[in-house]
Amino acid sequence: xxxxxxxxxxxxxxxxxxxxxxxxxxxxxxxxxxxxxxxxxxxxxxxxxxxxxxxxxxxxxxxxxxxxxxxxxxxxxxxxxxxxxxxxxxxxxxxxxxxxxxxxxxxxxxx
Length: 111
Hints:
Elements: H1 7-18, H2 31-60, H3 68-75, H4 79-110
Helix pairs in contact: 3-4
């Protein structure tokens, strides 16, 4: 009583099952066929869930912004321009570190 008798029937059943449409016109009748069906259904739900998640993420995620220094460093084809941008970033970091150290020293004096 098998109703999946050709490769075309099998492909049709697989696609209908994976997309969770499930027309019911083709279905496995043996235990081994049903085990294959369980695997196909599980894989299909996972596949479409993953694809839906990626698609939703691409619509909902905010666009990535780059800092001016990073943009200059990333877009610069000239190694000298990249080096200058990196040096500016290091100087800014050192200034920030010095300010933080001064604030910590003030806090230590208060304690």
